[in-house]
Amino acid sequence: MTTTRLAALAQEDPKLHVLAQRLLGLAEAGLPAMYLPEAETFAFTRAAAVSPEGTRRLEPRGTSTRYAAITALGARFLPEDRQRALFGGRSAEEFTGLLVERLPGVVNLGDAALVAWAAAETGHPKLSDALDRVAALDPPGRPRYTVEAAWVLSALAAARAAVEVEERLADARARLLTARSGSGPLFAHATGPGLLPGYRSHVACFADQTYPLQALARLHASGADPEALAAADACAARIVDLQGDGGQWWWHYDAREGAVIEGYPVYSVHQHAMAPTALFDLAEAGGTDFTAAIRRGLRWMTAVPELAGPAGTPREPMIREDLGVTWRKVYRGDPKKAVRAARGLTTRLAPQVQLAPLDVLFRPRWVDRECRPYEFGWMLFAWLGGPQR
User: Fold this and answer.
1) Spans in the chain with pLDDT lower than 70
2) Which residues contact 298 (CB under 8 A, 6 or more apart)?
3) Which pLDDT score is estimated for 169?
4) How far apart are CA 266 and CA 249, in angstroms?
């Protein structure tokens, strides 16, 4: 299967096209090891561990409804026989049906919204029931985490061609647009006061930007909404402007100032999947084309400046085909995320202060050796989604 996204990459940068194909192959190879047949769902993570005998291995830990739904959203673009290899013999549509059946027991809004989104994309006959569960978990007037509010909007935008959702869609749209911080282009971590302590209410993460801009772009694509598209475009332009010299998508922002508070960790999923997913959806909805930034971010996966050793050779690769994973992130190794906490507290009162000595004390040289299913799910969504050739 060739998409316009992959075809364009092949034309613009053949080496990166090879890398993207390599990562897509790794996603298909790695996801079956994250599937738990007895529970008929996906693990929360596969993490490095050491056995009592001293043998190093990767072990599955926990389960995750949201990661299962994201995997279904991405894997649906694969040919059906290859879908079945990921879901214990089910297709993505059939696996989504299993998630819909379990919705009465789901109590997290984000989980329910992602299941409803997958139901809309796969044409599940109980889509209305899935959306009703989302509504039951999302009473009006309550603040929500911005990421979850974005997933609600994406689900409703995907569903609007099949069921009547316009009133709920309008409310979800308004809530997400008001989550922008002041007159700036970035989104806060929550849609209103009450969920976060005051000292960190200005701190927003990368996901707080990509999921809203994606939702607003998809909203415009589902039915003309120039205001939503403009908000998505402005957010994207700002995070692209702040992108690191090595292609890094930074982690924490001052939503008021539109500035980076703390860059690390750098997450692999941001580089190969989340940023491409959002920015591709934006361009295909009629927004600005940021494919150059997508390519810079993807290139980081094999040219990681934080891990460069002598003569530029990497001390450790982020891509491990032998283990079926991409390592989750590069981080500082600071105790209890001290750098983020210090900068969050300081920038609350003095936005321009960066506490530069912390960069010397805590260099980003550590690798988080785990991998989660959603990283591969969004990778499939990013590169196999969009218009087909």
Assistant:
1) 1-2, 54, 199, 311-312, 334-362, 388-389
2) 16, 19, 20, 247, 271, 272, 276
3) 98
4) 7
